[in-house]
Automatic annotation (TrEMBL):
Chief location: other
Stored PROSITE patterns: PX, T_SNARE
Signal peptide as annotated in the record: none
Keyword terms: Coiled coil, Vacuole
Compartments reported by the entry: Vacuole
Species lineage: Eukaryota, Fungi, Dikarya, Basidiomycota, Agaricomycotina
Main function: Essential for proper morphogenesis of the vacuole. May exist as structural reinforcement on the surface of the vacuolar membrane and be required for maintenance against rupture by osmotic pressure.
Protein name: Syntaxin
Gene Ontology MF term list: phosphatidylinositol binding
Keyword check for Ribosomal protein: no
Coiled coil recorded as keyword: yes
Organism: Ceriporiopsis subvermispora (strain B) (White-rot fungus)
Occurrences of domain PX (ranges): 2-119
GO cellular component: fungal-type vacuole membrane
Amino acid sequence: MSAIQAVFVRGYEERTEPKPHIVYRIEIQASVRSWQMWRRYSEFADLHVELTKSTGAPPPAPLPPKHSLSLFRSKSDPALLEQRRAGLEQYLRAIIATHEDRWRDNPAFREFLGVPVGKNSLGPTLPAPSGAGTPPAFSATSWMDEYGELSGRVRDVRADINRRDALADRSDVAGAHQANVQAKKTLAGVLSRAAALEDGIRALAQAGMSEGELQRRADMAARLRDDCEKLAKMVTVARMTSRGLGTAAERNPASLSDRAELLESGSRSNGFARPGRVFGAKPQETEVTRPLDDHGLIQLQQTQMDQQDQQLGQLTTMLQRQKHLGLAIHQEISEQNELLDDLTSNVDHVGGKLTSAKRQLNRLG
């Protein structure tokens, strides 16, 4: 653990699956590499309990309190979350900086930071499924926790792919290759654990879980499997701006004559110009497509279509949220209009009574 140079808790985000909760982004910097982990506050609390039990003494710094002392601050209050983030960062830094190594060398702390056990090189790792060759026994709660953890790993893989593409655009071949290798390692662990997650549904069915809940969890596992398959395709296709990445077709691009024939194949046949109207401009070469042959172009197009599908899915989710928000506002306005109509009716009724009373007073006067 002495190779870890710094630990930061840079930020936090709210996640909705399996239920709404806050996760904190931990960045670990070692001598030759760096990585990040996402952890909930409950995982910090479990780590604190485990370190206290296994070492016989609490860590050098206390955990920030789980609940706010103020009655007017919610759990999602930005000021409270920022205060907790700073407290969690101080907690981890105190364990790293203390002269006693019984906390930072503890296996629970290594696993919490994603340090591989039994290896000299530091790097993020995935916990192996419990048992040797047998699927882990899931309960209803632990299954959802495992699904949430794997969903977070999938987001980490997607972040590594985006970082790989950004480094490739800057011609950082070594950094792009390292990010791509890290994405492959993380994705391999997710695939093995996703298979165990699917096997756990059968165990839950035997335990008597309802048919509707089993179908919902099967759909969740299928979506996770689809995401992993899409990411597997994206991992195998690196950005073409980096010479150190790519397939053999990318490293040995087709000749200019072959590419010209490929681009002009739709406008001529057997050496004669094909009569008819041509729509659109002639296809142009770019820095991304120039090193590719026809198979590479098809693969690149498939990757771009997958990315567009993911962006479309995110946009659909945002639009659905906006729709629900608009419906809620519409319902609230309708209720307010009904209250205003009732108030107007009551005012008219009271006004009529006042007019009648005034007339009676005039008669008596």
